[in-house]
Amino acid sequence: xxxxxxxxxxxxxxxxxxxxxxxxxxxxxxxxxxxxxxxxxxxxxxxxxxxxxxxxxxxxxxxxxxxxxxxxxxxxxxxxxxxxxxxxxxxxxxxxxxxxxxxxxxxxxxxxxxxxxxxxxxxxxxxxxxxxxxxxxxxxxxxxxxxxxxxxxxxxxxxxxxxxxxxxxxxxxxxxxxxxxxxxxxxxxxxxxxxxxxxxxxxxxxxxxxxxxxxxxxxxxxxxxxxxxxxxxxxxxxxxxxxxxxxxxxxxxxxxxxxxxxxxxxxxxxxxxxxxxxxxxxxxxxxxxxxxxxxxxxxxxxxxxxxxxxxxxxxxxxxxxxxxxxxxxxxxxxxxxxxxxxxxxxxxxxxxxxxxxxxxxxxxxxxxxxxxxxxxxxxxxxxxxxxxxxxxxxxxxxxxxxxxxxxxx
Length: 409
What we know:
Elements: E1 11-18, E2 22-30, E3 36-45, E4 49-50, E5 53-54, H1 57-75, E6 81-86, E7 92-101, H2 111-121, E8 130-142, E9 145-148, E10 158-169, H3 170-181, E11 186-192, H4 193-201, H5 204-209, E12 211-216, E13 221-227, E14 230-237, H6 241-252, H7 256-266, E15 278-281, E16 290-293, H8 294-318, E17 329-332, H9 341-349, E18 353-355, E19 362-363, H10 365-368, H11 374-389, H12 394-403
Parallel strand pairs: 1-6, 3-19, 6-11, 12-17, 17-18
Antiparallel strand pairs: 1-2, 2-3, 4-5, 7-10, 8-9, 8-10, 12-13, 13-14, 15-16
Helix pairs in contact: 1-3, 2-12, 4-11, 6-7, 6-8, 8-9
């Protein structure tokens, strides 16, 4: 789709994340066998973005340009288009239900029937200023038989479909698109950041067992619940690592930049081993050196991290997902680098937790091992899946083309 020539017939896909703390561009090579290899990375500190949304288009454009140029040099390609992640407090998700009723119970389900039930499932009350970002198919039910993946060719009079929908404010979704297009780049698709991260980290077994993915970024925290192989729930909190930094800045009475440095060098999601320890901070402005109590610093961090996890835990608990998460919790994003955060997550959610690594992706280890690049790597995987689905072949291929990404995520 990038109109580039590669002698090994590989397809190049670029994932772009315009985050609160960084802009990341990951170049992936998708081979004819379907494998994905990361061949280039470009990163740049982010300005002009707050809580995951663009607030200064000029600054954001400059940072995106720098990341793209670095990625092009790293991969030795010319980038023409990207899959772009989006997030923000304006995004909302819900599960919907669609029904198609035939004239008789021995009706053979056809692709148009599936198209009708898909369309019915996408009809729900939403604000007029919102647009659907994702409509993700879960499972079909035919005459009471649940868990059907593809009903075409089966007999039945009542076809039902459960679907997970993510929607948001149209203008706020378009702001990052305008930034990218202003650099003469095309946007293939917009993708919810949490969805992209989960695609990067999870394998099919985890999706079947049930797992919670928490992407703890600088400005937002996204979370995704998988169970029975499909997405059951998604959510966003407009809280992230920057809030931890701000808490430290106020609590310790210091500049945010110094608070961020302390968080990175001495912070942790536990107070274990911090009792009685102090840090001496030199002052270059003529003021006396100051001492910071390490236990106090970490208690401030733990309080904010606990609150964030508890909000997620309360949400998924209200919706009855706790018992479905047999694979536990998978963490990514910049917040996943905080020491001991997996242990804190395990305590709050009362299930095993780990820092995730990218799944079924080869190439540069700096990308596959970095929890902060999960979203950008996931965008490449998303692009590979979508491009495969957009090659119709016969009735089934046409159905998948009609359904878009519904059944493959």
